[in-house]
């Protein structure tokens, strides 16, 4: 199978700021990224990505004589996998007019959409099938996705033993510990969901965890951390304080006290000591969130909604984020009082980040993990820097 994960512009905009510099397929939901989920479930020979011309610089797109195209917003499940594997040649799966998947010889996505509109491709309506439509779907669906990913891991390999200093509430079968993980004098509660601990991850003493939790490879939970359910701490992240229904993508830090709830944090972010966010309005009303497409605040339909922070952004100590705050990528937030509920990318308080200084700061941050900012990423950052709307 030559698998191509495709994304459409409106869908990608719905997940800004996280998809400003990367495809939807690299968003982390549950234990894995969306791309990793498809790799796990379908085991294709290769996964290509069809995205915007700018982002295509980062992704391989290999088209063969026969291809399986899958919408990047679709979440794999047993039912979906079965439907895709049973697709005949020149057939598409659709759901209320939305293309979910296509099997056939069409190698150009624009030609594929035209053929669908002209009725040249047989279409199968699929009533079942779950997808992500908005950035808050990431934390809303994290509970079910952690559980699904946990089951897949359990079916493939065996957990390491639970250390004797760890106190368990609930079933020990719902705890999975990878090679090299270190747990010391902490408590794990699996009554509401499983706890997954990645390779070489570390849980320091005094930490209290309620599942479901996904702790990525080399991630660290600092001493006395309090984790409530449906939380993902991605690979190489460091977290402390109190977290409730949070996703931290990768390489980001919230190493100190402070509350973070119903939030999504991108890659290479840093939250200063005692950074807090509100996830509930004082009047218990519906939270409005900045919409990149309409360039205005739009109703989310949610009562609980916290912070969305794009890659490379950071906050100073004692920063207080209001409900439904959206921070673009590469923003530096500091100063007294509550910041705006929408902070554009490349903001330096009230000014604009200087691009050469941004590159320098990102490289200094990456040096701590023995990494450097790649030239392709610099090119994408430079292009985004010209767009004041991001």
Write the layout of secondary structure elements.
Layout (H helix, E strand, L loop, with lengths): L1 E5 L2 H6 L13 E2 L2 E2 H9 L3 E5 L16 E5 L6 H8 L5 E5 L2 E7 L4 H9 L4 E4 L11 H4 L1 H15 L10 E3 L5 E3 L4 E2 L3 E3 L5 E3 L4 E2 L4 E3 L2 E3 L4 E2 L4 E2 L3 E3 L4 E2 L2 E9 L2 E2 L4 E9 L2 E2 L4 E2 L10 E4 L4 E4 L7 E3 L4 E2 L4 E2 L3 E3 L4 E2 L8 E2 L3 E2 L2 E2 L2 H13 L7 H11 L5
Parallel strand pairs: 1-4, 1-5, 6-8, 9-12, 10-13, 11-14, 12-15, 13-16, 14-17, 15-18, 16-19, 17-20, 18-21, 19-21, 20-22, 21-23, 23-28, 24-29, 25-30, 28-31, 29-32, 31-33
Antiparallel strand pairs: 2-3, 5-7, 6-7, 26-27, 34-35
The CATH architecture of the largest domain comes to: 3 Solenoid
Percent strand equals 25-35%
Q: Please give the count of helices.
A: 8
Give the structural class.
Answer: alpha/beta
| Number of strand elements | 35
Total domains, how many?
A: 2
- How much is the average pLDDT? 96
Largest sheet: 13 strands, parallel
What's the level 1 CATH class of the largest domain? Mainly Beta
Distance between the termini: 36 Å
Helical content stands at 10-25%
Rg is: 21 Å
């Amino acid at each position: 199978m030559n698998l191509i994960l495709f994304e459409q512009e409106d869908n990608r905009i719905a997940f800004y700021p996280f998809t400003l510099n990367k495809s939807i397929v690299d968003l982390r939901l549950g234990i894995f990224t969306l791309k990793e989920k498809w790799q796990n479930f379908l085991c294709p020979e290769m996964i290509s990505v069809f995205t915007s011309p700018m982002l295509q610089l980062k992704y391989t797109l290999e088209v063969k004589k026969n291809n399986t195209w899958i919408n990047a917003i679709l979440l794999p499940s047993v039912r979906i996998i079965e439907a895709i594997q049973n697709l005949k040649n020149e057939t598409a799966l659709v759901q209320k007019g939305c293309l979910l998947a296509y099997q056939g010889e069409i190698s150009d996505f624009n030609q594929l959409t035209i053929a669908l509109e002209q009725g040249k491709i047989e279409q199968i309506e699929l009533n079942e099938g779950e997808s992500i439509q908005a950035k808050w779907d990431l934390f809303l669906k994290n509970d079910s996705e952690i559980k699904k990913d946990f089951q897949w891991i359990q079916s493939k390999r065996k957990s390491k033993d639970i250390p004797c200093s760890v106190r368990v509430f609930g079933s020990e079968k719902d705890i999975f510990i990878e090679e090299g993980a270190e747990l010391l004098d902490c408590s794990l509660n699996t009554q509401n969901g499983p706890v997954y601990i990645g390779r070489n991850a570390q849980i320091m003493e005094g930490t209290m965890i309620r599942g479901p939790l996904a702790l990525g490879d080399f991630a660290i939970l600092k001493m006395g951390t309090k984790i409530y359910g449906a939380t993902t701490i991605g690979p190489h992240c460091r977290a402390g304080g109190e977290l409730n229904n949070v996703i931290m993508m990768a390489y980001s830090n919230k190493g100190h006290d402070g509350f973070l709830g119903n939030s999504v944090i991108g890659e290479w972010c840093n939250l200063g000591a005692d950074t807090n966010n509100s996830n509930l309005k004082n009047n218990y009303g519906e939270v409005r969130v900045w919409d990149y497409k309409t360039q205005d605040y739009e109703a989310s339909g949610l009562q609980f909604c916290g912070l969305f922070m794009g890659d490379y952004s950071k906050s100073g100590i004692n920063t207080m984020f209001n409900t439904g705050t959206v921070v673009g990528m590469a923003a530096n937030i500091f100063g007294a009082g509550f910041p705006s509920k929408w902070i554009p990318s490349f903001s330096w308080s009230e000014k604009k980040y200087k691009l050469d200084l941004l590159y320098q700061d990102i490289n200094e941050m990456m040096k701590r993990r023995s990494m450097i900012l790649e030239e392709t990423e610099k090119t994408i950052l430079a292009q985004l820097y010209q767009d004041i709307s991001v």
